[in-house]
């Protein structure tokens, strides 16, 4: 019978995806999907890659702040929690298909996120008139160090919504790649994995 240590990692963790001059090219897409596939193969986080208590608290503070800023509509402050080379990914699949061959609901770099925040701030984004009210809940949070200054985080999420008096929910799991910078921890990748991502969606034009 295999012990937990033998079951922890099946393959070596790939290198962090690097966007070339701010653009997502084919190599970037390949590296992103390789990273997430490797994460999902992990059974138990290896002891050597467990974060310190200080690192864990810092990363928890970052992600709880990220959720709170979305829910309070402070999207400019929310975006400041992201790195310059960040990616915000909302796929249409539940099987970790290759994003080169599979359409995503959203796959945004920093510039597109800036455009999104600016558009929503005008009050003229008709898909968000009125604005969707949200309450984000993150739970089952697991963390794994990747190198000296990066952290992989998995968590489940539940998003309660209210728009025009219509109550709704979004649920699934998030995969984050965080990086420690001189200004604190920042979000490099956020992948939002809806449990029904492969089915027709309601109005998801708010920030998940």
- Estimated share of beta-strand residues: 25-35%
Q: SS-based structural class?
A: alpha+beta
Strand order of the largest sheet: 2-1-6-5-4-3
- Count of alpha/pi helices: 5
Explain this structure.
With 208 residues, this protein is α+β, with helices and mostly antiparallel strands. The chain contains five helices and six strands; from the N terminus they run ααααββαββββ. A six-stranded mixed beta sheet has the order 2-1-6-5-4-3. A hairpin with a 2-residue loop joins strand 4 and strand 5. The N terminus is likely disordered.
Task: Provide keyphrases for this structure.
208 residues; alpha+beta; 6-stranded mixed beta sheet
Write the layout of secondary structure elements.
Elements: H1 4-7, H2 26-41, H3 53-71, H4 75-79, E1 82-91, E2 104-109, H5 110-121, E3 133-146, E4 150-163, E5 166-181, E6 184-194
Parallel strand pairs: 1-6
Antiparallel strand pairs: 1-2, 3-4, 4-5, 5-6
Could you write a compact summary of the structure shown?
27% of the residues lie in helices and 34% in strands. The protein has 208 residues and is an alpha+beta fold. A hairpin with a 3-residue loop joins strand 3 and strand 4.
